[in-house]
């Protein structure tokens, strides 16, 4: 059995996929959970160890990190005060004997010191623990989760990104890189900028959806105000809406289209394309029969 690997954010898109891939590779996985319930994203056949862990409850840290050699760390979206909630967890991991932290960051974090991800990166580097930073671009799976309802019920992609291009990446590729970083040598003190192999604007994305789902899907380009009001009416928290607006404004300004070769070089294959993603996930949008 391999060394014990601890996964935070295990119910999210990336974390759940990492758990699945590690478990299928017969790795010893411990999952951080606040409610100790399995994720609906996992197969019932996966064998994982659950432990109570909450960034806002430091008393859960020591037991969670006990015996752990490697940690996949991600920042919960609701926690912007990383000094208060994440730094102590990192300190506890080091005190418990953790030998490596693989941190899910964001593309461009190295040049944007204001964002929480950059602050976490800097702190991890300052404490001297071996690290791997996964600076990921925009997840394709946001289209099958956050924006699923728009596509499924209204045949539209509703977000304010203008004509800006985005270097989308499939979370399955991010997870595959994370698994390599957690289980192979040669990834210590490295930062990887993870993107797909194509930069697309949302008009192009809508065309791909239209072709694959065999039904019209239109890209709506609302104003920021109209988007914010719509998301608020759907029950999204203002803080989360603000983060979304920031992400799409970055795309609108042409700052989200950067392409790198890191994903392909690490995985030794081409990244999953947008078309392949839509084909693989088509059932989640409840494709209606053509009339």
Could you give a quick summary of the protein structure above?
The chain is α/β, with parallel strands linked by helices. Helix content is 39%, strand content 14%.
Structure overview:
The protein is of the alpha/beta class and 291 residues long. It folds into 2 domains: 5-136, NAD(P)-binding Rossmann-like Domain (Rossmann fold, 3-Layer(aba) Sandwich); 142-165 and 197-257 and 269-285, Alpha-Beta Complex (UDP-galactose 4-epimerase, domain 1), CATH 3.90.25. It contains 12 helices and 9 strands. The strands form 2 sheets. It has a 7-stranded parallel β-sheet, sandwiched between helices. Helix 1 packs across helix 7 (171-183). The longest helix has 15 residues, at 238-252.
Can you lay out the helices and strands and say which pair or pack?
Elements: E1 5-7, H1 13-24, E2 29-33, E3 49-52, H2 61-65, E4 70-73, H3 82-85, H4 87-95, E5 100-106, H5 116-127, E6 131-136, H6 148-154, E7 156-158, H7 171-183, E8 190-194, H8 202-213, E9 218-220, H9 224-233, H10 238-252, H11 262-267, H12 274-281
Parallel strand pairs: 1-2, 1-4, 2-3, 4-5, 5-6, 6-8, 7-9
Helix pairs in contact: 1-7, 8-12, 9-10
Keywords:
single chain; 291 residues; alpha/beta; Rossmann fold; UDP-galactose 4-epimerase, domain 1; seven-stranded parallel beta sheet; two-stranded parallel ribbon; 39% helix; 14% strand
- For the biggest β-sheet, the strand order reads 3-2-1-4-5-6-8
* Rg measurement, Å: 19 Å
- Quick one: how many beta strands? 9
Q: Into which percent range does the helicity of residues fall?
A: 25-40%
Indicate the CATH class of the largest domain: Alpha Beta
Mean pLDDT across the residues is 91
Which structural class matches the secondary elements?
Answer: alpha/beta
Principal-axis shape equals: globular
CATH topology call of the largest domain: Rossmann fold
In DSSP terms (H or I, runs of 4 or more residues), the helix count works out at: 12
How far do the termini sit from each other? 54 Å
Query: For this structure, what is the CATH homologous superfamily of the largest domain?
Result: NAD(P)-binding Rossmann-like Domain
Largest sheet: 7 strands, parallel
Binned strand content: 5-15%
- SSE series: EHEEHEHHEHEHEHEHEHHHH
Model regions low in confidence, pLDDT < 50 over at least 5 residues:
none
Tally of domains: 2
State the CATH architecture of the largest domain. 3-Layer(aba) Sandwich
């Amino acid at each position: 059995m391999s060394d014990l690997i601890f996964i935070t954010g295990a119910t999210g898109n990336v974390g759940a996929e990492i758990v699945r891939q590690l478990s299928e590779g017969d790795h010893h996985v411990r999952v951080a959970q606040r409610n100790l319930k399995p994720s609906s994203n996992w197969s019932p056949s996966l064998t994982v160890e659950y432990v109570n862990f909450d960034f806002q409850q430091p008393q859960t840290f020591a037991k969670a990190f006990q015996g752990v050699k490697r940690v996949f760390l991600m920042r919960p979206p609701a926690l912007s005060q990383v000094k208060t909630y994440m730094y102590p967890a990192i300190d506890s991991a080091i005190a418990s004997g953790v030998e490596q932290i693989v941190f899910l960051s964001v593309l461009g974090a190295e040049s944007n010191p204001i964002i929480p991800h950059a602050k976490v990166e800097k702190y991890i580097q300052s404490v001297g623990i071996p690290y791997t930073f996964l600076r990921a671009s925009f997840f394709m799976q946001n289209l099958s989760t956050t924006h699923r309802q728009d596509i499924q019920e209204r045949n539209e992609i509703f977000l304010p990104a203008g004509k800006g291009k985005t270097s989308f990446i499939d979370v399955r590729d991010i997870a595959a890189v994370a698994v390599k970083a957690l289980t192979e040598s040669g990834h210590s003190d490295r930062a990887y900028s993870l993107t797909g192999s194509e930069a697309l604007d949302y008009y192009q994305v809508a065309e791909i959806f239209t072709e694959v789902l065999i039904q019209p899907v239109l890209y709506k380009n609302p104003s920021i105000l109209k988007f914010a009001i719509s998301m608020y009416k759907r029950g999204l928290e203002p803080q989360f809406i603000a983060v979304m607006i920031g992400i799409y404004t970055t795309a609108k300004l042409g700052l989200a289209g950067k392409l790198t070769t890191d994903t392909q070089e690490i995985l030794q294959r081409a990244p999953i394309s947008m078309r392949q993603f839509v084909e693989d996930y088509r059932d989640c949008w409840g494709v209606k029969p053509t009339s």
